[in-house]
Amino acid sequence: MSVIQVERKVLAKNDIIANQNRETFTNNKNFTINLVSSPGSGKTSLVEKTIQHCNGKFKIAVIEGDVQTDLDAQRIDKLNVPVAQIVTNGGCHLEANLVKDAMNDLNVEDIDLVIIENVGNLVCPAGYDLGEDMKVVFVSVTEGDDKPLKYPAMFRNAAACVINKIDLVPYLNCSVEELKKNALSINPQLKIFLTSCITNEGIDEWCNWLRSNLKK
Amino acid sequence: MSVIQVERKVLAKNDIIANQNRETFTNNKNFTINLVSSPGSGKTSLVEKTIQHCNGKFKIAVIEGDVQTDLDAQRIDKLNVPVAQIVTNGGCHLEANLVKDAMNDLNVEDIDLVIIENVGNLVCPAGYDLGEDMKVVFVSVTEGDDKPLKYPAMFRNAAACVINKIDLVPYLNCSVEELKKNALSINPQLKIFLTSCITNEGIDEWCNWLRSNLKK
Fold first, then answer.
1. Do the Cβ atoms of B1 and A1 come within 8 Å?
2. What phi and psi values does residue B181 have, to the nearest 5 degrees?
3. Residue A4's closest chain B neighbor by CA?
4. Which of A162, B13, B35, B120 counts the highest number of beta carbons within 10 A?
5. How far apart are CA A78 and CA A64, in angstroms?
6. Portion 103-132 of A in contact with B at CB < 8 A
7. What is d(CA B56, CA A180) in angstroms, rounded to the nearest whole number?
8. Cβ pair A192, A141 in contact under 8 A
9. CA B209 to CA B205: how far, in whole Å?
10. pLDDT tens-place string over residues A9-39
11. Which CATH superfamily is domain B3-212 in?
């Protein structure tokens, strides 16, 4: 038996559970997004901002994925929304069965928006369906404008792209126009947001878009 | 057969080839470092700086690893040092057999310093020996000071840690002291460098340390 066959088995098993998750999300009318990016692109900070801006208007729950620690869940818990932490203990991506367990812990029936924050890794999570409505790929301007070309699968498999930490552009050798162009060259359908959690640029637009996607 | 068994087989096979690579490096008296980090932490920029500062003093060759594109090898090639690009086509880390092929292409016999730049991924490359003398983990201050705690394996398996883009600290919510403390809490033996490719802070110290490790 070769590794490739085993990988296929793992993915096939993952897809079965991902479809069960999707059925649950659909029955609950949860809009569910899977946030993927490099470590340190600012996913958790934008989740915090999203909760602060939107939580009076609709109900949010968060599933945090990390290799180690529950630091991110601690940050979200302070904002008084339901949150579950998945610690992968070295695993480089979330899988559907872990999300299923987290959903059972959280009780997401009356939730409008379920945010899954994946492990910080711009490669491996691209291949794993968790049952979400869409992947949203984050890229910080500090990472440089070539990242969509170097890590294309993640940009190809996402429906939206958040270009974050936009306030730092004046101090960097990074062209936002080039970054956008590179992302759209991989996936012309990407909905692109430019955001900063320091200046709040783009946060209203991001939250309005989330709201427009809600199912109830 | 379970996935874990297959993974062990893959790792065991990798270790055999890694030991062959190590024997070759030892026979050639190559000092070999494996640079690992998140995407966009500035590994390639620091490799460029290293070549500009050191290439008159000792001989450098570079092996670039990327999921897609040869953009990084193109950058290094402009500096007139031997460079090989490994494109993993979706693979999330370098393996020893790929490095072995690159070594054969490069002819590293008379080289003093072999720099292997791994795929940008703070998780998966931690577990793969390539035959290098040591791993050097890079972390950009833009990624936040909690990364060593959230991705401990990479910091545990490295001998040195480059805290990069130090010029951006004034614009960030990142404490370099906290970042150092967190890195040393995972691995108290880490040799730590603070660097910036914009201001050249720390570049001399980094290059002197490389020079002190050469074997010929």
1. yes
2. -60, -45
3. B6
4. B120
5. 14
6. 119-124
7. 39
8. no
9. 6
10. 778 899 999 999 999 999 999 999 999 999 9
11. P-loop containing nucleotide triphosphate hydrolases (3.40.50.300)
